[in-house]
Design goal:
The structure is a single chain. With 115 residues, this protein is mostly beta strands. It has 1 helix and 10 strands; from the N terminus they run βββαβββββββ. The protein has a 6-stranded mixed sheet. It has a 4-stranded antiparallel sheet with strand order 1-3-8-7, with no helix packed on it. A hairpin with a 4-residue loop joins strand 7 and strand 8.
C-alpha cells in the first residue's frame, strides 16, 4: 500500500507549504513516520521523522527550525509544515515509514521554490 503525499506546489522563497500524508491505522500504530525528499540529480534523503508515540522528532540539519513534522493519530496522518522555504528545498517530497520500506513509496508531491 503506497503512502501518498499531498500539498506540494510552487512558492516564492520565504513562503510556506504544508504537506500531508495519510496511512492505515496499522502503519500508524506500528511505525515511526518520515518525510523524505529527492532533488534533481540527488539521492533521496530523510528530511524529518517522528516517533510513533509522537514524543520524539528528528530533523535534517538544513531544515531544522524551518520545518515541523507532526502526526494526528485520530486521522492516521502525518504532516510537514515548511516555513521560510529556500530554492534548495525544491524537490519531490515523499512520506514513508522510518526506516523506509519499499512498498510504501508513493509518487510524492513536487515542491518548487522560486528565488
Amino acid at each position: 500500500v503506497q503512502l501518498q503525499a499531498s500539498g506540494g506546489g510552487l512558492v516564492h522563497a520565504g513562503g510556506s507549504l504544508r504537506l500531508s500524508c495519510t496511512a492505515s491505522a496499522h502503519i500508524f500504530q506500528v511505525y515511526n513516520m518520515g518525510w523524505y525528499r529527492q532533488a534533481p540529480g540527488k539521492e533521496r534523503e530523510l528530511v524529518a521523522s517522528i516517533w510513533k508515540d509522537g514524543k520524539n522528532t528528528y530533523y535534517a540539519g538544513d531544515v531544522r527550525y524551518r520545518f515541523t513534522i507532526s502526526r494526528d493519530s485520530a486521522r492516521n496522518s502525518v504532516s510537514l509544515q515548511m516555513n521560510s522555504l529556500k530554492p534548495e528545498d525544491t524537490a519531490v517530497y515523499y512520506c514513508n515509514v522510518q526506516p523506509p520500506l519499499g512498498p510504501y513509496w508513493g509518487q510524492g508531491t513536487q515542491v518548487t521554490v522560486s528565488s
